Amino acid sequence: MEITSKRDIFGMIFFALSVIMLGYMFLTPLNHYIMHVDEYFTLSVLTLPIGDVINITSWDVHPPLYYILGKIAVDMAAAIGMDSLHALRILSTIPYILILVISATKIRKDYGLLTAGLFTFSLAVMNEFFAHFLIARMYAWAILFIIVTFLSFTEIIKSNDIKSWIIFTIFSVLCAYTHYFAALSVICMYILLLDYIIKFEKDKLKMWVMSVAGAVILYLPWIPPLIRQMTQVHAAYWIRQVNPDMFIKSLGYLAYAHSAIIGLIAIAVLIVLLYIYKKESEGVDVKERFLILSGAGVYIGTILLAVIFSIVFKPILMPRYLLPAAAVMWLTISIIISKIKSRKRVMISAALIALLLLIGITTTISTNDYFYNSGVHQKEILENITDDPNSMLIINNQNMIMYFLSYTNQTDTYCMNVDHVFGENMTQLHKFYDFNTFNTRDIDKLISNNTGKNIYIISWSDPVLKTSAEKIDAWAGVTISKAKTSNGTSVSTNE
Questions:
Q1: In the predicted model, is pLDDT for residue 486 greater than 60?
Q2: Could you tell me which of 355, 377, 375 has the C-alpha nearest to residue 367?
Q3: Cβ 88 vs Cβ 73: under 8 Å
Q4: What is the DSSP letter of 103?
Q5: Which long-range contacts (CB under 8 A, 24 or more apart) does 46-51 make?
């Protein structure tokens, strides 16, 4: 990378720090612990054959692509003796590596080294990005796909070559097969692109129509599962209704997710940066101006679509679902910084960005510390249960069976008697896992018939029992309790 200015020096520093953060992703102790409750689901599902993986996914609330990639990664890891969790950590880190490559080449060439460096560093330290480039979920891949989609979107505006349209269409579909909020961001891009075409270049309308048709055709195989998932969500879903507090946190999610005050600061910074660019870009080619401001349109548009969907259908807005859109916003912010020429405005913008980065770094440190302590504690409790030869585990919820299915082969386990879990027949699950079943109404009888055992119950919130039970731990809605039988003492948690 050729360095020709002070901006390039700062860009190189940011990029070097990004590479250091990448190295830390491989070295962090977080790689040895569960960071999020949904990772239990991921690990259990990926032990099953690929057909079962896709079937279970179709009864969940996410599209299938990540689970297919995860299944490939887990099977390859098994062939070389690698732990599944470690393999999935690497799988989630690969998108960040590819984003570094894209930034060092395509983004650096188009917008300069400062943009490339600031963008990659922001994805390493802002909000929850670092954690989600590790967590065994689909967010990292959704971020990669949406960035490639947005870059091809900008190329379509710059030129009308077929290659850009093809890349835009294919990666739009990959977004939709990875996370539905990434699909909302793609919809925003198609709307913005149509607006641009109608206003400035009507000759591109034919390609837009062909792209939409191609995307729809490629997504047709997943339409039936999508309709079923929407029906399930409409019937019952756990996300609470959108309120002013959540709306502020969502708009400010580019900086912080859990504080409305910080959210307001982030919104204010974003407004100031957009105003500064508006003043700087007076007289600039309308195509370039539209291109850059479209990133903010994708971010805000994704939030607005989610709010509308939440009001007219069912609440679906959760701040972490905005990670892909937030990545586009940070690319836009990084481009804006490189376009500001006025020294005074540069200093103001740099100070505002530094404030956001400081918030981001502080958040990343505290978030990682929380995930580490929580992961150590969870592992210790579950290992105390599975290492106890006199333990018995009761899974007292239908969906939770899939989350903790992998523990059924490690201790005497009873799962509630149901026909299926996430669309998977229990008979099929019995082929891979050793567990007993019980009728929910007989749980107290099951406990009384096993008073000589240390009986642990995993449930969403506190279990409904006539038998008294001691809560051992709770996280993300999961509660582990120990039934108080005639011989039992609580599992040691070393608290």
A1: no
A2: 375
A3: yes
A4: I
A5: 46/70, 46/71, 46/74, 46/84, 46/88, 47/74, 47/84, 47/405, 47/406, 47/432, 48/424, 48/432
